[in-house]
Amino acid sequence: MLILDRLREIDRLLDGCGARAKRAFLMAQCLGMSYVEIAQRLGVSLSSVKKYMVKATERCLLLEFDEQP
Fold first, then answer.
1. Helices 46-66 and 35-42 meet at what angle, rounded to 10?
2. Close Cβ partners of 42 (under 8 Å, ≥ 6 residues apart)
3. I need a labelling partner for 23 at 20 to 30 A (CA). Which of 13, 35, 38, 68 fits?
């Protein structure tokens, strides 16, 4: 139950960062896929995956920081 709650929270945090960035982040974090594998799966360049990961990670960190008491 805790894992599902955390996944829902991550999903909420990633809202607004774009579908590909969200998907790339989840593929890396939940499925353990490499950036190369993600690029192949999404049909994008490796540099795009790196940008998606930066965007999604930054969003999670900023929103998580904003929610701290």
1. 110
2. 20, 23, 24, 48, 49
3. 68
The pLDDT score that the predictor gives to residue 64 is 64
pTM of the predicted model over 0.85 = no
5 vs 16: CA distance, rounded Å: 19
Q: Per-residue DSSP letters for 38-52? A: HHHHHT--HHHHHHH
Please state, in angstroms and rounded to a whole number, the distance separating the CA atoms of residues 51 and 25.
11
Measure the CA–CA gap between 60 and 17, rounded to whole angstroms. Answer: 10
Distance CA 10, CA 14 (A): 6
Provide the residue type at 27 as one letter: M
